[in-house]
């Protein structure tokens, strides 16, 4: 299966890392399905479709297991296979542990961790049937070392890393690979919403002295999808934060 024949699914693809990944993969793939929680605006979709006619959008809430499974089955029914999955959908509900509500804790886990599982499960089943495929889960450096005010996010992303390593072991016998990318501070709407003091503190901890770009994470994701002898790995894309 060559790159030009591959069919990919990217979740949480409306903006940021997800959208950058869609564009990266669409430049070399047969088809890329971008999963969105809400449809893109008419103008956004027209601009994207004009540049990448091999991209389609599928509206689904990955936190709902039924919707996630239906989405994967629909892709396979239309294209005959699924060669790559990028689990990128994620949200934040930041607050100190002492002030965090159980609802905010569980909401983040439901989207970030359970949502990743919900899509990974049917995708892994299809790829095992094909005896070929690659999965990249988007974790975070926060899942590696924690962060004040992000207990829910850190727990969800640490869980994604554990899920990745387990899926790698279970999929390997049928040549299905599963890796994770752990971005650091990337210029997205999520990081733009952080208080300036938090952004300045984060910047001071980055040896390269800048935030990353979504396209730089997308390149790393593409590498993990294509590298045939890497599985169960966590690739940090963080400007040196974890050094």
TrEMBL record:
Top-level taxon of the source organism: Bacteria
Coiled-coil regions listed in the entry: none
Residue ranges occupied by any Ketoreductase domain in the UniProt entry: 6-196
Pfam families: adh_short_C2 (PF13561)
Entries under PROSITE patterns matching the protein: ADH_SHORT
Signal sequence residues: none
Record InterPro entries: KR_dom (IPR057326), NAD(P)-bd_dom_sf (IPR036291), Sc_DH/Rdtase_CS (IPR020904), SDR (IPR050259), SDR_fam (IPR002347)
Family stated for the protein in its record: Belongs to the short-chain dehydrogenases/reductases (SDR) family.
Protein name per Swiss-Prot or TrEMBL: SDR family oxidoreductase
């Amino acid at each position: 299966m060559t790159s030009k024949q591959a069919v990919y699914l990217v979740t949480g693809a409306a903006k940021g890392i997800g959208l950058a990944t869609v564009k990266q993969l669409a430049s070399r793939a047969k088809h890329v399905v971008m999963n969105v929680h809400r449809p893109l605006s008419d103008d956004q979709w027209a601009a994207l479709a004009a540049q990448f006619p091999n991209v389609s959008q599928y509206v689904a809430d990955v936190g709902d297991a039924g919707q996630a499974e239906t989405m994967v089955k629909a892709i396979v029914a239309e294209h005959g296979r699924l060669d790559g999955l990028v689990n990128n959908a994620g949200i934040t509900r930041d607050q100190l542990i002492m002030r965090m509500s159980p609802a905010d804790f569980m909401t983040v886990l439901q989207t970030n961790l359970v949502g990743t599982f919900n899509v990974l499960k049917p995708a892994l089943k299809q790829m095992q049937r094909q005896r070929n495929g690659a999965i990249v889960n988007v974790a975070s450096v926060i899942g590696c070392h924690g962060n004040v005010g992000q207990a829910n996010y850190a727990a969800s992303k640490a869980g994604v890393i554990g899920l990745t390593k387990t899926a790698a072991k279970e999929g390997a016998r049928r040549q299905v690979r599963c890796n994770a990318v752990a971005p650091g501070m990337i210029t997205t709407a999520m990081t733009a919403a952080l208080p300036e003091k938090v952004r300045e503190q984060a910047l001071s901890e980055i040896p390269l002295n800048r935030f990353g770009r979504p396209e730089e994470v997308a390149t790393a994701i593409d590498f993990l999808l294509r590298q045939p002898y890497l599985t169960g790995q966590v690739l940090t894309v963080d400007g040196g934060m974890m050094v």
